[in-house]
Design a protein that fits this description.
1 helix, 113 residues, 3-stranded antiparallel β-sheet, 8 strands, 35% strand, mainly beta
């Protein structure tokens, strides 16, 4: 029994012509990984994300609203999103629209507004 006849209805002798789109059909998407990349840490309307480690090795991610003073001067306006001692923060940032936040450890946390 010829296995090629079972899996192929018609043998292809030449590759199909290449497809050359004239415009990009996919927008660029920012990614972050263990070995590079990065997400936005600010939004167009002034929100900011910071990685903090005041008691290393515990580290966290804080969200600062547009009206908050500089984090180093007055941290009272910031909101602690996640804090981990045993699990490092792998990536964090805003979506391109600024309407979603992602924080990746061994878990994935996503917030939207």
């Amino acid at each position: 029994m010829d296995l090629r006849s079972i899996y192929l209805e018609k043998e292809v002798t030449a590759p199909p012509p290449p497809c050359r789109p004239t415009t990009c059909v996919c927008p660029e998407v920012a990614v972050a990984a263990l070995w590079g990349g990065g997400l936005r840490t600010t939004t167009a309307d002034g929100w900011v994300l910071h990685r903090i480690a005041p008691h290393w090795p515990t580290e966290g991610v804080v969200l600062c609203p547009p009206s908050a003073p500089e984090l180093s001067m007055d941290p009272s306006g910031a909101t602690l999103l996640v804090s981990y001692r045993d699990t490092p923060i792998r990536a964090f940032g805003f979506s391109d629209s600024g309407r979603s936040i992602v924080v990746a450890t061994t878990d994935l946390h996503v917030w939207t507004r």
